[in-house]
Amino acid sequence: MAHYTTIMNELLHLIPRHRFETIVNHYSGDRYVKRFNCWNQFTTLLYAQASGKDSLREIEHSFAVNAERLYHLGLPQIKRSTLADANKARSYQIFEDMFYRFLERCKDVTPKHKFKFKNPLYTLDATVIDLSIRAFPWAKFMAKKGALRLHYEFDHSGEIPSFLVITDAKQHEVTVTQKNFDIISDSIYCFDKGYLSYGWFRRINDAKAFFVTRARDNMRYKVIGQHDRPNKKGVLSDEIIALYGTVKSEDYPESLRLIRYHDKDTDKTLTFLTNNFRLSSMAIAHIYKARWQIEIFFKWVKQNLKIKTFFGTSKNAVLTQIWVAMCYYLALAYIKYQTRYRYSLYYLHRVIGETLLSRFSIIDLLRASERILPKLKQDEYQYVFL
After folding, report:
1. Are 270 and 285 in contact (CB under 8 A)?
2. Among the residues of 230-314, which ranges form H helices?
């Protein structure tokens, strides 16, 4: 059997199969199924993500052409109608739950974030996926536009998504966050002005966690003390403040810390708001600067995974594809950290995509990647400057 091991087969071995079957049984995903079960569906969609397929027809054709190289995956003959029916009918929650089970395994190998403090650090943000209103009427956003909003909690330890909620684009970030995201004590949550809600701030503070965000220009407050003196590194002021005016005392009755910082790189002065009085003002500024890692993640996912063109038009089919894409992202992260792969996720994704049906192991692939990478480096250079 080892002779017939392929990269695709090894990708599947990373997935905790017994947990997958437990999830399938919970949702009765394989009830009345004779041939094309949930594992076959997951295998097919994972293959489509890794190989960059754009349509059901492409998937069907690829499986037909490579039938002899794919038999070891235990797949029946793949027809696009069969896959379309499965994507429409089988609950996307099977693959959502699988994402979180796989995430547990990934967290065992991810490195800690690069800051000196030990607090877990998360960034909250959302990105929009545009959809055709004609093809996806259930995702209506405006009169002639459809869209989904993906609300992420991004873990800076490993730079992986640790939580995801998918809604229509009408749902506001802070509303979704307050309703769905759990707060972990002693953690630091970073977010932009779109999440500015004093009730949300109080929830974080009451949970004995911390937040770092930017203050609104029209925020009304009074200075009640100086936290630290300005320094020559860009910190203009570091003050302790109390809110007043339209903000009700029960919304956020505690004092806050207001830091004004001049960023030399952008030549902009930024004002940060936080309930953390322990870290230095420079650390707070650097935390907010690190928030842009999630923007890089958004760009990577949209340019490399299949979450902008879909294999079906039903809501269930779209959400299924997104959750399988996130599972594939975790698989890449797991391989990178488990093997201490020194190149980027982009290289790893491209190398795997180019050799997906090759008959050798992932370890052999990574050792041989020195011979493959020169071809891909020029591609990445072009990709970066698109």
Report:
1. yes
2. 281-290, 292-304
Both tokens of 164, joined, read 């995801």
Is residue 268 helix, strand or coil?
Answer: strand
Q: Flag whether 258 is in a domain.
A: yes
Tell me: do 283 and 335 sit in the same domain.
no
Distance CA 161, CA 124 (A): 10
Per the listing, tokens 């929650």 go with 93
Residue 223 domain-assigned (yes or no): yes
Same structural domain, 223 and 282: yes
Question: Is pLDDT at 143 greater than 60 in this prediction?
Answer: yes
Residues 221-244: what's their mean pLDDT? 87
How far, CA to CA in Å, does 322 sit from each of 30, 49, 197, 267, 319? 21, 10, 29, 38, 5
| Residue-range definition of the domain harbouring residue 283 | 192-290
pLDDT of res. 138 = 94
DSSP letters, 33-55, are -SSS-HHHHHHHHHHHHHHT--S
Q: What is the pLDDT of residues 167-194, one digit of tens each?
A: 999 998 999 998 999 999 999 999 999 8
**Quick check: 189 and 201 in contact, CB under 8 A?**
no
Q: Is residue 195 within 8 Å of residue 217, measured between CB atoms?
A: no
Each residue of 30-50: pLDDT tens digit? 998 888 999 999 999 999 999
Counted domains in the chain: 2
Q: CA torsion, points 212, 216, 220, 221, in degrees to nearest 10?
A: 30
Give the chain's radius of gyration (CA, Å). 23
Is the same domain home to 282 and 361?
no
Both 357 and 284 in one domain: the answer is no
Last residue of a domain, one of 290, 317, 351: 290
Same domain, 280 and 315: no
301 domain-assigned: no
pLDDT recorded at residue 14 = 94
Examine the domain organization and report whether 243 and 321 are in the same domain: no
Tokens (6 digits) for 82: 């069969």
Helices (H), 133-196: 173-180
Q: How far apart are CA 272 and CA 288, in angstroms?
A: 8
Task: Select from 142, 115, 121 the least CA-distant residue to 130.
Answer: 142
Q: Is residue 317 part of a domain?
A: yes
